[in-house]
């Protein structure tokens, strides 16, 4: 039987999270530190461990069938690959930064300036859209030191917390775009591989839903049930079960992880008690 070949980052910010996603999909993968490729013992998949920069090319050329990498690399490399879905990790932004003591006057500040970056394509597109003339200095790493060593006036790079910028005496002045990890696929997948991919996607969907949602259980007086149901949309509609205590019920539902703290006070004000919020192992809609 054919195997679906998936390329993931060998070592870096996306490596562990990519493996973790596959493992949560029930796919067994053993990886030593020197492993370059490995098969799963319980799913028809072969994992290739590569530099993230090379993944778009390998997927375009069918060396790998699918890949996990940052959207930023897909935009920069501009290879013929299809984006399947966002994966909800590896979030970052691509921003312009300048030395912190500089007076930033708006985007035209960058006109006729030198900017160092590892993302020349994304930056030149941004400059063209904004009618800026910028001299782009392409370097492959340690972009943040470029201004202090006199290579460039500013930088265009990936930022997540901003602490690397601060450490290098820089300030972020424009966010050009946001990026996160995505799943891409080759444009020519055999029917058989497409079938394996669908099976994998079904599992990924379930894993991502379960990460984004929580199961909530609470007790409430029957008189409050309808008001509480308004606040808790649930997957279809919440489950309401009678409690042994006369006039009370237990309400169960699913809520978005990031909505939880907004909802909680409203639930308490409506008379909800003994509120339990628990993680969901897998969620299939
Ligand atoms: P490789 O050796 O595979 O080329 P790399 O040095 O290019 O590794 P990493 O720094 O591991 O790459 O980043 C991989 C991806 O992680 C980035 O392309 C980006 O999509 C994402 N990412 C998320 N947060 C950050 C961050 N703070 N800094 C850098 N990349 C980040
Ligand atoms: Zn890279």
Walk me through what this model shows.
With 285 residues, the chain is α/β, with parallel strands linked by helices. It folds into three domains: 4-87 and 182-189, Periplasmic binding protein-like II (D-Maltodextrin-Binding Protein, domain 2, 3-Layer(aba) Sandwich); 92-179, D-Maltodextrin-Binding Protein, domain 2 (3-Layer(aba) Sandwich); 213-279, Alpha-Beta Plaits. The protein is built from eight helices and 15 strands. The strands form three sheets. It has a six-stranded mixed β-sheet with strand order 2-3-1-4-11-5. A hairpin with a 5-residue loop joins strand 13 and strand 14. The model has no long low-confidence stretch (mean pLDDT 95). GO terms for molecular function: ATP binding; ATP phosphoribosyltransferase activity; magnesium ion binding. It comes from Apibacter muscae. Its cofactor is Mg(2+).
Radius of gyration: 24 Å
One letter per element, helices H and strands E, the order comes to EHEEHEHEEEHEEHEEHEHEEHE
Span of the ends, CA to CA: 29 Å
Number of strands: 15
CATH architecture tag of the largest domain: 3-Layer(aba) Sandwich
GO molecular function, one term: ATP binding
Protein name: ATP phosphoribosyltransferase
EC number: 2.4.2.17
Catalytic activity: 1-(5-phospho-beta-D-ribosyl)-ATP + diphosphate = 5-phospho-alpha-D-ribose 1-diphosphate + ATP
């Amino acid at each position: 039987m054919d195997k679906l070949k998936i390329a993931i980052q060998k070592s870096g910010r996306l490596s562990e999270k990519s493996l973790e996603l596959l493992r949560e999909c029930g796919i067994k993968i053993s990886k030593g530190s020197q492993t370059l490729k490995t098969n799963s013992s319980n799913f028809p998949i072969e994992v290739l461990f590569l530099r993230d920069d090379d993944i778009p090319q390998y997927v375009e050329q069918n060396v790998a069938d699918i890949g996990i990498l940052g959207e930023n690399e897909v935009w920069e490399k501009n290879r013929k690959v299809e984006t399947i879905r966002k994966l909800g990790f590896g979030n970052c932004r691509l921003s312009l930064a300048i030395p912190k003591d500089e007076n930033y006057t708006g985007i035209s500040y960058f006109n006729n300036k030198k900017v160092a970056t590892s993302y020349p394509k994304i930056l030149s597109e941004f400059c063209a859209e904004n009618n800026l003339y910028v001299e782009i200095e392409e370097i492959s790493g340690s972009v943040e030191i470029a201004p202090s060593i006199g290579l460039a006036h500013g930088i265009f790079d990936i930022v997540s917390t901003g602490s690397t910028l601060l450490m290098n005496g820089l300030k972020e002045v424009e966010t050009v775009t946001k990026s996160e990890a995505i799943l891409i696929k080759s444009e020519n997948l055999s029917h058989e591989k497409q079938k394996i991919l669908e099976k994998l996607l079904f599992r990924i969907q379930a894993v991502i839903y379960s990460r984004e949602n929580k199961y909530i259980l609470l007790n409430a007086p029957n008189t409050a049930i309808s008001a509480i149901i308004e606040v808790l949309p649930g997957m279809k509609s919440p489950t309401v079960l009678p409690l042994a205590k006369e006039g009370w019920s237990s309400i169960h539902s699913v809520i978005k992880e990031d909505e939880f703290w907004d909802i909680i006070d409203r639930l308490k004000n409506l008379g909800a008690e003994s509120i339990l919020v628990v993680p969901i192992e897998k969620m299939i809609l």
